[in-house]
């Protein structure tokens, strides 16, 4: 299969957003601006946590991991997109494309599992506050984070291997702005039954299981919050998990709408829109959502402001 692909062509053409040459530079500047915001905001969150010892708690360690994921997530997609927009050369080699598919899936899986770990952390903090330091020690937090990364880096191996064995004899034009599994399956002339079945199985085992675990955690969390007698106590407890709930809703809403469905229902324009949400909007919004009303971050930023003035 690989030799058949290479004999025909060893490159894909990524269609992107527009074929109009006069729009390439404005689109380039837009994505460059967004990418810089994502990197700088997530680096700021990471550095704030790493350099302040009082933030070395499980909740902030998980948030630190989330910042790393968001930077890695967008860095898998946007630098190549920016290069294509700047040079107006829309080709990507087979190898680059499959590497992009692998890391995109890996980092998506990492975020799925990390959001579940963060939900468990909030469940322990709100439902078992007196045992929190025992049930969610720094050692256990480190073990959970390590398990999340190892599982996620191994998970896309089968998926990516199946994609690399596909034959693209009819078209090499990817109707998307990066190499994603769904548009690749749309242009292959190979049978996609096996890979689609694996997608559903893997999606059920990983994504749906993590979502169910997260939702069950929040059922217990909300029940515990409603049983708090003090209105101030309820508000304080809810504020500790509201940001996480917001990120979970946005992330899972977009991921499920794009991937947990048959390839035959693929709509390029619709999928590009949803892809923008989880490739660009979520990594850009996460630092804002988690720090906007967080008193610990406000205290850190206030100290930094005092140092520089």
Structure in words:
The protein is mainly α and 309 residues long. The protein has a single domain (2-308), classed as Up-down Bundle (Rhopdopsin 7-helix transmembrane proteins). It contains 12 helices and 3 strands; from the N terminus they run αβααβααααβααααα. The protein has helices at 2-8, 21-50, 58-87, 94-127, 132-135, 138-154, 156-164, 181-187, 193-226, 231-259, 268-291, 295-308; strands at 11-14, 91-93, 173-174. The chain has a 3-stranded mixed sheet with strand order 2-1-3. α10 (231-259) runs antiparallel to α11. It is globular, with a radius of gyration of 21 Å.
What's a concise summary of this model?
This protein has 309 residues and is an all-alpha fold.
Which helices and strands, and how do they pair?
Blueprint: H1 2-8, E1 11-14, H2 21-50, H3 58-87, E2 91-93, H4 94-127, H5 132-135, H6 138-154, H7 156-164, E3 173-174, H8 181-187, H9 193-226, H10 231-259, H11 268-291, H12 295-308
Parallel strand pairs: 1-3
Antiparallel strand pairs: 1-2
Helix pairs in contact: 2-3, 2-11, 3-4, 3-6, 3-11, 4-6, 4-7, 4-9, 4-10, 9-10, 10-11
Descriptive tags:
12 helices, mainly alpha, disordered N terminus, globular, Rhopdopsin 7-helix transmembrane proteins, 3% strand, three-stranded mixed sheet, 309 residues, 3 strands
Total DSSP E strands = 3
Distance, first to last CA: 63 Å
Averaged pLDDT, please? 84
Query: What is the CATH homology-level superfamily?
Result: Rhodopsin 7-helix transmembrane proteins
Number of domains: 1
Order of helices and strands: HEHHEHHHHEHHHHH
CATH topology: Rhopdopsin 7-helix transmembrane proteins
**Strand numbers in spatial order across the main sheet:** 2-1-3
Spans where pLDDT lies below 50 across 5 or more residues: 1-8
Query: What fraction, in percent, of the residue positions are helical?
Result: over 70%
Tell me about the largest β-sheet.
3 strands, mixed
CATH class: Mainly Alpha
Rg on CA atoms, Å: 21 Å
Structural class: mainly alpha
Shape: globular
Number of helices: 12
Secondary-structure arrangement, i.e. CATH architecture:
Up-down Bundle
């Amino acid at each position: 299969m690989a030799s058949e692909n290479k004999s025909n062509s060893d490159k894909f053409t990524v269609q992107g957003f527009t074929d109009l040459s006069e729009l390439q530079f404005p689109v380039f500047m837009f994505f460059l601006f967004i990418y810089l915001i994502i990197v700088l905001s997530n680096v700021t969150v990471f550095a704030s946590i790493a350099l302040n010892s009082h933030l070395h708690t499980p909740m902030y360690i998980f948030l630190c991991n989330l910042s790393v994921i968001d930077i890695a997530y967008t860095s898998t997609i946007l630098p190549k997109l920016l290069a294509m927009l700047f040079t107006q050369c829309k080709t990507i080699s087979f190898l680059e494309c499959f590497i992009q598919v692998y890391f995109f899936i890996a980092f998506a899986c990492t975020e799925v599992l990390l959001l579940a770990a963060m939900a468990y952390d909030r469940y322990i903090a709100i439902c078992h506050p007196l045992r929190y330091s025992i049930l969610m020690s720094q050692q256990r937090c480190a073990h959970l984070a390590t398990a999340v990364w190892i599982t996620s880096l191994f998970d896309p191996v089968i998926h990516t291997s199946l994609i690399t064995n596909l034959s693209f004899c009819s078209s090499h034009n990817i109707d998307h702005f990066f190499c994603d599994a769904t548009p690749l399956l749309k242009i292959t002339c190979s049978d996609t039954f096996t890979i689609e079945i694996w997608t559903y199985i893997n999606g059920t085992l990983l994504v749906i299981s993590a979502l169910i675990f997260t939702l069950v955690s929040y059922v217990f969390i909300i029940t515990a919050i409603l049983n708090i007698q003090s209105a101030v106590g309820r508000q304080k407890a809810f504020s500790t998990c509201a940001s996480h709930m917001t990120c979970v809703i946005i992330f899972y809403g977009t991921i499920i709408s794009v991937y947990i469905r048959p390839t035959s229902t693929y709509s390029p324009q619709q999928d590009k829109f949803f892809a923008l949400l989880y490739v660009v909007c979520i990594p850009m919004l996460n630092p804002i959502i988690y720090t906007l009303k967080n008193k610990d971050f406000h205290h850190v930023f206030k100290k930094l402001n005092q140092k520089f003035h």
